[in-house]
Structures are given as C-alpha cells and as structure tokens.
Design goal:
mainly alpha
C-alpha cells in the first residue's frame, strides 16, 4: 500500500492547527480522523470523492472536504479525487452519463454535433436532455461511489493478506 507515500505528502494535523487564518475551522480540521490512512477512512474518502466529482457544481473540493469532515474520513484523499472531473474530462463524463440514462429510459439521443455553441440551442434542448442527464449523473455518482468504496476495501484486504503471506514466506525459508 502506498501508505508511506501518502503520509509523506500529507500535512500534519498539528500544522493545520497552527494556521491562524483558519480560525474556528482549525479545530475541526486538526481532527486526527481526517488524516488517518486506514481501510475505513480511505474507502470512505474514495466514496465521497468519487460521488462529488460527478456533481455539476462549482467548488466540488469544498463540498468533498465538508463531507469528509462530516463523516470523519480522510479529507485530503476525498478532496483530491474530485479533480478527476476537470474541464478536459467533464464533457466526456457528462455525455457518457447522458447516453447511459437515455439508453435506460429508452429515449432517442440528441446529435450534439450541430450548433451546440449557441446559447439558444442549449435553452431549446435542455428540456430534452435535462432529465436523462440528471438521471445519468446521479446513477454514475452512486455507482462510482459504491465501486470505489468496495474496491478500496477489497484491495486493502488483499494487500494486507498478500504482505502477511510474503512475511510468512520469508520467515519459513530454510537456512
């Protein structure tokens, strides 16, 4: 597990507590639960980060950090994961979510190759693409969140067993 790498890169809770500009938040942000690297904390951070990255809202990082504080999971990981959705990846992500929902709803998809750049086109077509897009983004947020949570938990368990097996094999080697 890259636990040591994460520990080296993360800011310590004591450093956060000493920041004068944070005021009241310094106490909440210095909670050790927000900085721990254990299976529960990292899996929860992945669930939050992967859910929030699908939300079509500004300041996703703030929302992810707030949720991490609320559920006491690793805040740096949950805040960093929202950067998967960025100006380069957002359009393909949302278009894919729209296609998935349109397929599930059994409606015909809209051809986006036309005059998409005009504001009038978006106003006219939003009534058509709004519900499939909302449903698709919601489904993808929940799906990514659940898969991220259980994927990290399974990977973490596998890694612990694998490392224990390697340790045991080293101890059994004949002299």
């Amino acid at each position: 597990m890259p636990k040591k790498l994460f520990q080296r890169l993360m800011v310590s809770p004591e450093t956060i507590k000493q920041q004068k500009g944070l005021g009241i938040l310094a106490e909440r942000l210095s909670n050790p639960c927000l900085w721990h690297l254990n299976r529960r904390s990292v899996a929860g951070a992945f669930a939050i980060g992967l859910f929030v990255m699908w939300l079509p809202i500004p300041f996703q990082t703030v929302v992810a950090a707030f949720c991490a504080i609320l559920w006491r999971v690793n805040m740096p990981i949950s805040a960093a994961l929202v950067f998967i959705s960025n100006p380069i990846t957002m359009l393909p992500m949302y278009y894919g979510a729209y296609l998935v929902a349109a397929k599930l709803m059994g409606i015909e998809t809209i051809d986006f190759s036309g005059e998409m750049s005009s504001w009038q086109w978006w106003k006219d077509e939003f009534s058509t693409i709004g519900w499939p897009l909302t449903l698709g983004v919601s489904l993808m947020a929940v799906l990514c969140s659940v898969l991220g949570y259980w994927g990290i938990r399974l990977f973490w368990s596998w890694n612990v067993r694998y490392r224990a097996h390697k340790r045991k094999a080293r101890q059994i080697q004949p002299l």
